[in-house]
Amino acid sequence: MGFDAIWISPIIDNRDGGYHGYWGRNLYRLNDHFGSEQDFVDFVNACHERNILVMVDVVANHMGNLDTNFGVNTPFNSASHYHDWCEISDQDFANHNQDRIENCRLAKLADLKQENDYVRTTLLSWIKNLVAKYHIDGLRIDTIPEVPKWFWSQFSQASGVYTVGEVFDGGMSYVGGYLGSLDAVLNYPFFFWVRDTLFNQKDMYNLRNYYTEWSKNIDPNRLNYMANFCDNHDNARTLSWAGNWEDKKKHHRACHAMAMTSLGIPIVYYGAEQYFAGGNDPANR
């Protein structure tokens, strides 16, 4: 299909049922459902032989347990490595209540305490060694707003590779505020703006306004590094939306044409090329 980079799922050992990779259990062990360490080395080497870059998904916000039994985790096996129990609400996200977003649990997942020196230095050492050991070319980083920006600056620097973070929010000023701490972020404003225009049949001038608004919020050159997408594993696929199937396919193709030709780095979620139409998690996975 002509792609020159692959973004793969988190590779570390996960709790039972964590097929998606976001329920980490042991940072120093690979997920044996994917194969051995040598299998991963061989995979990366095979990609590099074909001039294909490999971007790995990583999590530094939480571990996978939904309780306070921290002894099951490696290396963060003490209560002192985690924030006290509280849970982020939808209202916290809507109001950008950063104190709770950064210090409470997302979906009850054990929230790591990056201000703890052991947690901070261990995560920095882990990502540096992971990238070096497997010759990883880039990182997609999960749950960016849930961790302070100062930590992401250190984490990105320690990795030494291109970093793109998930800021699941449509606000340009909020999303753009994480640029600098990371090389780029997933372009959720693009996702919401373009899909709304196409699938709700709004005036195409709306897309010109999209670029105008972005230029008010960030240096336009930063758009070159943003990650444009139409589908991903956290949102219902475009083809699951209501409407006539033939019209949905036209809008689906138009959205991907926009992602590929707009300023930024396009990302195509697997299955889009086969018209996968799964709805919300887990159907979209």
The largest β sheet comes out as: 5 strands, parallel
User: How much of the polypeptide forms β-strand, as a percent range?
Assistant: 5-15%
**SSE class:** alpha/beta
Kindly report how far apart the N and C termini lie: 21 Å
Describe the protein in words.
This protein is an alpha/beta fold. The protein contains nine helices and nine strands. The chain has helices spanning 37-49, 90-94, 98-103, 117-134, 149-159, 172-176, 188-199, 205-217, 245-261, and strands spanning 5-8, 12-14, 24-30, 53-58, 138-141, 162-165, 184-185, 227-229, 265-267. The strands form three sheets. A five-stranded parallel sheet has the order 1-4-5-6-7, with helices on one face. A two-stranded antiparallel sheet has the order 2-3. A two-stranded parallel sheet has the order 8-9. Strand 5, helix 5 and strand 6 form a beta-alpha-beta unit. It starts with a strand and ends in an 18-residue tail after the last strand.
Topology:
Blueprint: E1 5-8, E2 12-14, E3 24-30, H1 37-49, E4 53-58, H2 90-94, H3 98-103, H4 117-134, E5 138-141, H5 149-159, E6 162-165, H6 172-176, E7 184-185, H7 188-199, H8 205-217, E8 227-229, H9 245-261, E9 265-267
Parallel strand pairs: 1-4, 4-5, 5-6, 6-7, 8-9
Antiparallel strand pairs: 2-3
Helix pairs in contact: 4-5, 7-9
How do you describe this structure in short?
Helix content is 35%, strand content 13%.
Keywords, separated by commas or semicolons:
about 280 residues, alpha/beta, two-stranded antiparallel sheet, 9 helices, about 35% helix
